[in-house]
């Protein structure tokens, strides 16, 4: 009986080969995970059903995480955008007031460049890089880093063609990580966990005091200005230093200051207020841009996860159907051999 059953199975396999069909594809003859093998289903790579199921669970979990992160970013965006809308009028009014000094400085730009080229004492400029503490927020951090690298010399020195000697202050961990390799010698101070809690004016005054202690001739703020939920503009904002403000204080003679202090002290207070206000606005703008970019990035990630899960489900169903069909063919072939 056993001999007839064995000979029948052999004849069945041989007959299938003569009909042009491949030898019976037995699941137990295949490895658990076939890396680099090519499936008959459209010429794509395939893995075992267990591996596909594990991949489906992983993608589904990632999709849930990205969807939750999108909702959290949307909630944070509403709060920080409300604070940013309130602070914008103050920052704009102070910027317009000190724009008079910027107009006074324009004719002297050639003198600055000629002084730097002649080898005289170069003026000092502080570049404040405002980035986030966490990633997964699109290109907001890389855009700021790219703008700073375009400003700094490519040879690693601190002096640029306009005659300034540059130093870098870092607000946020991502800017420090990105500029560590190329511009670490220009770092003067780094602030971390600035955006861990909502940005406050008291928090900004600590950063402003650090800038004031350096007595820089110019301060450049590099940050992302919020335009919409899908658009952020990388901005370079230049603030003149206290020394230039004192030298050109006559620009503000048309204004009347109601104060018992002398004019020099009033200028110092105005400079401190301008620095803190513009820095506060820059941090709020960048924080709003970060949350908007993260919400958009997580929305795209959730859509990609759903699309990938759909493709994996289709692949899983095809592989499972192929296994079931193969097993049915083997059962029918075995039953036919037994009957013979």
UniProtKB/TrEMBL annotation:
It comes from the Eukaryota. One of its GO terms (molecular function) is proton-transporting ATP synthase activity, rotational mechanism. It is a peripheral membrane protein. SUPFAM superfamilies: ATP synthase (F1-ATPase), gamma subunit. Keywords: ATP synthesis, CF(1), Hydrogen ion transport, Ion transport, Membrane, Mitochondrion, Mitochondrion inner membrane, Transport. One of its GO terms (cellular component) is proton-transporting ATP synthase complex. The keyword Transit peptide does not apply. Pfam families: ATP-synt (PF00231). InterPro entries: ATP_synth_F1_ATPase_gsu, ATP_synth_F1_gsu, ATP_synth_F1_gsu_CS. Belongs to the ATPase gamma chain family. This is F-ATPase gamma subunit. It comes from Cyanidium caldarium (Red alga).
């Amino acid at each position: 009986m056993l001999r007839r059953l064995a000979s029948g199975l052999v004849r069945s396999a041989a007959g299938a080969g003569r009909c042009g069909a491949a030898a019976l594809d037995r699941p137990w003859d295949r490895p658990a995970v076939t890396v680099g093998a090519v499936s008959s289903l459209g010429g794509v790579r395939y893995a075992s059903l267990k591996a596909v199921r594990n991949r489906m669970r992983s993608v589904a979990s990632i999709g849930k995480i990205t969807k939750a992160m999108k909702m959290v970013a949307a909630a944070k965006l509403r709060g920080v955008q409300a604070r940013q809308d309130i602070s914008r009028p103050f920052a704009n009014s102070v910027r317009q007031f000190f724009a008079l000094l910027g107009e006074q400085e324009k004719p002297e730009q050639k003198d600055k460049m000629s002084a730097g080229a002649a080898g005289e004492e170069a003026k000092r400029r502080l570049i404040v890089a405002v980035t986030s503490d966490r990633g997964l927020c699109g290109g907001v951090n890389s855009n700021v880093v790219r703008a700073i690298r375009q400003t700094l010399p490519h040879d690693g020195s601190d002096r640029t063609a306009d005659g300034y000697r540059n130093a870098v202050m870092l607000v946020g961990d991502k800017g420090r990580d990105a500029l560590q390799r190329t511009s670490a010698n220009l770092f003067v101070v780094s602030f971390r966990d600035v955006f861990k809690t909502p940005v406050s004016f008291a928090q900004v005054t600590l950063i402003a005091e650090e800038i004031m202690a350096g007595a820089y001739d110019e301060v450049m703020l590099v940050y992302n200005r919020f335009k919409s939920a899908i658009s952020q503009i990388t901005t370079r904002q230049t603030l003149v230093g206290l020394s230039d403000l004192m030298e050109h204080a006559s620009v503000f003679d048309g204004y009347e200051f109601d104060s018992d202090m002398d004019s020099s002290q009033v200028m110092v207070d105005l400079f401190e207020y301008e620095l803190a206000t513009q820095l506060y606005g820059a941090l709020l703008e960048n924080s709003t841009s970060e949350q908007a970019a993260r919400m958009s990035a997580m929305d795209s990630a959730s859509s990609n996860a759903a699309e990938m899960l759909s493709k994996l489900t289709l692949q899983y169903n095809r592989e499972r159907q192929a296994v079931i069909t193969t097993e049915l063919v083997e059962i029918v072939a075995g039953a036919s051999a037994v009957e013979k």
